[in-house]
Amino acid sequence: MLRLLGQSEYGLYQLVSSVVSYLGLLSLGFGSSYVRFYSRCKAAKDEDEEARLNGMFMLIFTAIAVVCVLCGFVLETNITTIFGSGLTEAEYATARVLMAIMVLNLAITFPNTVFNCIITAHEQFIFQKSLILMQYVFNPFLTLPLLIMGYGSVGMVLVTTFLTIVTTILNIYYCFVRLHVRFSFRNLKPALLKEMWIFTFFIFLNQIIDQINWSIDKFLLGRMAGTTAVAVYGIGGQINTLYVQFSSSISNVFGPHVNRIVAERDDDWELTKVLTRVGRVQFYVLALILSGFIFFGHPFVLHWAGKDYSDSYGVALLLIAPVTIPLIQNLGIEIQRARNKHQARSIVYFFIAIGNIFLSIPLIRIMGPKGAALGTAISLLIGNGLFMNFYYQRYLHLKMGYYWMNIGKILPGLIAPVVAGILMNRFLDLNRIPVLAVCILIYTLIYAASMWFLVMNDYEKNLLAGRLIKKRKERKDSK
Q1: pLDDT tens sequence across 172-191
Q2: Which residues in 183-274 belong to E strands, given as ranges?
Q3: 8 A C-beta contact, residue 421 and residue 361
Q4: Are 446 and 416 in contact (CB under 8 A)?
Q5: pLDDT in tens, 326-355
Q6: Judging by beta carbons within 10 Å of its beta carbon (0-12, 13-18, 19+), is residue 59 exposed, middle or buried?
């Protein structure tokens, strides 16, 4: 994709995508509140109330989809004002088409959010994650022929929209046929809508903050440095996105469990233990990726994206290193929402995000894409590294000393792989793809062995070994 598009058009694609993504804020945070209110209905065993909740969410998100299309029309009409003088006439023409298709794709995702939330609340994660996997697998296979035929970035967003439609249809089928979900649009309670809005307002504020932190850099680079700088940042941002997904794919499956604990007994110590167990598993995964990327990331980026994206390595490191702290604690966000104590985090993060803008502007002038990433990194360290841990301890009564003590016990397991990584960089030519691939494999095996023999507790070993034993038994039974 990078080679067929070229750096300029890839930067244009990233730039338009960052602007359209702001329309995602129209969801107002309602999607994140569904599991909490569903858990209440489930605890009360009120199926009629559950059907009314589904109906209310569907009406809300359908209205949001209509507003999204109208806002997209306004954006497309004023596209030259939005992007300033950083684009050529040809780029403006392409940007208009990209924006129209992306807005349509986003509008479709809003009603689909309701079905996604229902599937999450029912803890049907195998189906849900299989759909996500399908999108990731089919996207490049469908996109590549269109790129070869010369459709460029327009072909890419058409494929994405097509997959969104297919995913929505499959979600609808699963909810109605397999889960037997009901929707009721009668006797809707305005008081419930008011309660939901009060709850979701601060989630909405937090979404604004996330949007600023993860999209404002591209927007500022587009206006101040052009599409090429956006492309360089975009590659680093893509690595960061994948890094975040590795963590959230683990914590997301525990959201309903946390809401159930809070709804039934709201035990501080039980929530601390769940946060710690999940955090350790997340840290095993992220520490492997982060440490491996430090040692092998630069030659990997050069092989993957090309020499023009050399600075993307530094951008990626500046983004993924500080975000590791919130990623191994992101189950805490679910705890906050389940207890309806997520307001303070949103307010503090809002001011930190504003600081990110003021930091990034001068840093972009000095350092280019790396400066934008550095501004985001500083804001993440202040907000997540300092404030949130204080908030978890002081106001949510989670035992953060116990949490960090258990995370710290993992660090000795990093000694052997880090030494191996240093030696590989010192004595081997990692610019050759076969050598790089073999070194990454060896590093991963050393990391796994070190963690297994030096760090992992019985619960974690049983978690992994139990999966392997189950898979082996399933293979024997199938024979």
Answers
A1: 999 999 888 888 888 777 77
A2: none
A3: no
A4: yes
A5: 899 988 888 887 787 877 777 777 777 788
A6: middle
C-beta of residue 338 within 8 angstroms of C-beta of residue 258: yes
Query: What distance lies between CA 301 and its chain's CA centroid?
Result: 21
Question: What number of other Cβ atoms are within 10 A of residue 312's Cβ?
Answer: 28
Per-residue confidence (pLDDT) for residue 213, from 0 to 100: 67
Question: pTM for this structure?
Answer: 0.71
- Cα–chain-centroid distance for residue 273? 24
Report helix angle 152-173 to 89-121, nearest 10: 20
Whole-number Å distance between alpha carbons of 347 and 278: 26
Quick one: tokens of 446?
Answer: 């050393």
Distance CA 61, CA 70 (A): 14
- Cα–Cα distance, 29 to 36 (Å, whole number): 12
Q: Which two tokens stand for residue 45?
A: 């065993």
Query: What distance in Å separates the CA atoms of residue 67 and residue 65, rounded to the nearest whole number?
Result: 5
Give the tokens for residue 456.
């992992």
Q: Which sign, positive or negative, has the C-alpha torsion 440, 442, 443, 444?
A: positive
- Does pLDDT of 216 surpass 70? yes
Q: Where are the alpha helices (DSSP H) in 122-189?
A: 125-148, 152-173
Residue 70: both structure tokens together: 């109208």
Which of 61-75, 139-153, 214-228, 322-336 has the lowest average pLDDT? 214-228
How high is the mean pLDDT of the chain?
A: 84
CA 252 to chain centroid? 11
Residue that the structure tokens 């501004």 belong to:
375
- Write the single-letter amino acid at 199: F
Residues with Cβ within 8 Å of residue 456, at least 6 apart in sequence: 284, 464
d(CA 108, CA 126): 23
Residue 163 has pLDDT above 60, yes or no: yes
Q: CA quadruple 187, 191, 192, 197: dihedral positive or negative?
A: positive
Does pLDDT of 305 surpass 90? no
Q: Which residue has the tokens 């569907």?
A: 58
- Structural Rg of the chain based on CA atoms: 23
Q: How many residues does the chain have?
A: 479
